[in-house]
Each structure stands twice: as C-alpha cells, then as structure tokens.
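Lab notebook, design round three. We kept the backbone fixed and only want residue identities now. Task for the bench partner: fill in a sequence for the structure below.
Input structure tokens:
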C-alpha cells in the first residue's frame, strides 16, 4: 500500500484531539485524525461520556479560530460564579460558603459548560466541513517509527502515513507515548468519580458549586435546562469502595444520597442520565515531546477534576503548538520546535498538577480537625480581596 503524506497526524479523537485537528486545519495545515472508536455523540448511547467540560475564557479565542465556537456556544451554559462550600462539620450542611464572581476580574463569565458527548458531536460535524482534515474514526495507530525528517505511522487498517508532526492526543494510556519510550509518573488516590446529570427545582443561576466534606469534592456544574427543568452536571468524587457502593444503589436510594451530599442547595436532585465511574489519578509524562512528536492532553498530563483545569490545560498545550508552528514554518516539526514546546509547557503542567493534588488531598480529609483547618483556610483566602482576585486569575490561567 502506498504511503500517504500529511503535515500532521493526530492520534486520538477525544475532545482534545478533535479540537487539534480543527485548529491545525483552520491554520492551513493538512491533518489526518484517527481514533480506535467511533465517536459516541448521544447521551443515551452506550459508552457516552457523561462528564461535562467548562471551557474557560482563555480557551474561547482558540475555539473561535478553529471555527468551533459558533457551533458550541448555543449549547453552552455560562459559569458566572464559582461557589465553594465547606460542609465538613458534624452534620452534612453548609458551614462556610464563599462565592468567587467573575465580575470581580472580567466583564465575561469564567467560562461556559457543555457535556462532553455534545462537544464531540459538534466537533465531528465541524470536521466534516473542513477540506484539510481526513477524520478516520474506528482506526487506531498501530506502530510508530520516527526519524529526523518525519514520523512513519502504520494504522490499524494497514494505511501507512508519513507526517511532519505526530500529535499524541490518545489518552492516559497513550500508545504513541509508549512507542516513543516516554515514561510517566503516576499517583493514585484510591478515589473514583461518579459522573452523571440531574435536574432540580431550584435554578442554578449560572453558579458552579463545589461542596467539600470528605472523600473528595461534590461538584454541580450548570447545564442548559433539560425538559423545561433546571439541569446540572455532577462529578462526585469518593473513595473507591464508597463510589462503587453508591453506583450500585437503587435509583431512589441514590437520589436520596446525592441530595443529602449536595446539602439540598438546589432542592431534591433527580437523576437524568446513566452513571459513569472512572478512577482518579495524577499523571505527568517525563517529556512532552519526542522526535517528530508532541504529547498533549491526557497523553501528557492527567489530574483530578477540580477547578475545570483538565481540558483547558490541554487547550493550552494546543495554543503553544499552534504558536510554535507559526514560528517554525520552515522547520515545522523539528527538534528545535518540539524542544521549545516541552520547555514552554512542562513546568506549568507540573505546577498545576501539584496545586490540584493539594486541593484534592484537602477535600479528601475525613478527620474533623483537618476539616476545620480546611474551612478556616478557605475563609482566610476569601477574606483578602487581592488574594481572591489573584486566585481567580490563576484558575483561568491568566496573569
């Protein structure tokens, strides 16, 4: 079979990989994007990703340049306020409530929230309109051989591809990263996360609420109304055995438990989807680049789902790659370009993972003394307006 030449091969068709394909194609590069599984683009379909993603302010210009934001904006719920609730007292009820309002630092919301399955649906539809993209769902990266001038990739259907740049966006168990022999450091917390959607009688008013008691945060993120009722996406982090116990409960018992864990802030919660479960880890690659290869998204870094950092860090990887591609048109995909990418991103990735790790450990605290210390610390941070504004800007990833 003849070898196909392309500027970029994106290995991985998750949200990050699809965004990369659209962004590079919109910048004029030819792209082949492959993924082992056909995309699941319905909430009811088996294997649907029921997590949601908050697209923070700095990610929007990238999505606009890629032509994606006009498709996504009509489905997005704005996130105006980030509410932190400490419910670590003797009974599960709020004892400290602090609101971080985007109006304190910007005329726009912190970001906009969308379900992951819907993101993939709209992104796949957009790729079909781009002549520079060859999207191949159901096709995996089978083998990788790199040399100074190109990456030679064989796909699962036997197609051979020569790419000037190979982008590994193929997840936390990245086959491309393994093929290049790039090591990872993994930290396991003994936690799992339950992801699902709910409806509730009290409107969320575009407030994302993170409730801390023990085991990990319980986070309600605004969604557009569902069936005429206010709706939210929930990520409920718990120690592994407890998460599995919750998942196995009958529907009525599960709804009672989640309403109690939410402190009843939005009224009785009604389950509106199936429940996904996945393990919580921190993971960072030893390097974010190899010969003719850039690692991005979960191939490069994984962290607990706190503070809407995950995909937005992935899009920060992509922004850096796009900027370096524009600066290295004459030596696109070269060692100089990829070394610059590693230097630009790796330190920030490690710093953010450390910060999220500390927040997660604080949220897991079960001992009353540690929970009291957490509540005191939250109050102290919020009490200083300059510190509060600095924390909000840091969360967005802006100076």
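Proposed sequence:
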């Amino acid at each position: 079979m003849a070898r196909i030449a392309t500027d970029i091969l994106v290995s991985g068709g998750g949200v990050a990989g699809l965004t990369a394909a659209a962004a590079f194609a919109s910048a004029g590069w030819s792209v082949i994007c492959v993924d082992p599984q056909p995309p699941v683009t319905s909430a009811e379909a088996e294997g649907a990703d029921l997590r949601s993603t908050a697209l923070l302010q700095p990610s929007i210009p990238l999505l606009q340049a890629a032509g994606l934001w006009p498709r996504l904006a009509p489905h997005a719920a704005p996130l105006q306020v980030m509410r932190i609730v400490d419910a670590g007292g003797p009974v599960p009820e709020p004892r400290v409530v602090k609101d971080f309002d985007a109006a304190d630092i910007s005329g726009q919301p912190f970001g906009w929230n969308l379900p992951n399955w819907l993101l993939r649906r709209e992104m796949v539809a957009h790729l079909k309109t781009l002549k520079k993209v060859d999207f191949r769902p159901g096709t995996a990266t089978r083998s990788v051989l790199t040399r100074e001038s190109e990456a030679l990739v064989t796909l699962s259907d036997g197609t051979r591809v020569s790419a000037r740049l190979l982008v590994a966006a193929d997840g936390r168990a990245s086959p491309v990263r393994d093929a290049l022999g790039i090591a990872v450091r993994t930290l396991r917390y003994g936690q799992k996360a339950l992801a699902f959607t709910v409806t509730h009688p009290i409107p969320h008013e575009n407030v994302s609420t993170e409730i801390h008691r023990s085991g990990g945060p319980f986070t309600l993120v605004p969604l557009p109304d569902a069936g005429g009722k206010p709706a939210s996406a929930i990520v409920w982090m718990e120690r592994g055995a407890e998460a599995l116990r919750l998942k196995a409960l009958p529907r009525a018992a599960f709804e009672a438990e989640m309403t109690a864990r939410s402190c009843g802030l939005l009224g009785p919660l009604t389950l509106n989807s199936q429940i996904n479960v996945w393990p919580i880890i921190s993971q960072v690659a030893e390097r974010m680049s190899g010969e003719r290869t850039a690692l991005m998204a979960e191939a490069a870094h994984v962290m607990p789902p706190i503070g809407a950092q995950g995909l937005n860090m992935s899009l920060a990887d992509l922004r850096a790659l796009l900027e370096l591609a524009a600066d290295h048109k004459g030596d696109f995909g070269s060692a100089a370009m990829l070394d610059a990418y590693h230097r630009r991103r790796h330190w920030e990735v490690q710093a953010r993972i450390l910060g999220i790790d500390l927040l997660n450990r604080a949220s897991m605290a079960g001992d009353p003394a540690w929970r009291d210390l957490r509540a005191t610390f939250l109050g102290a941070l919020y009490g200083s307006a300059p510190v509060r504004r600095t924390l909000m800007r840091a969360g967005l990833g802006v100076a």
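Keep this in mind before ordering anything: The CA atoms of residues 86 and 212 lie 5 Å apart.
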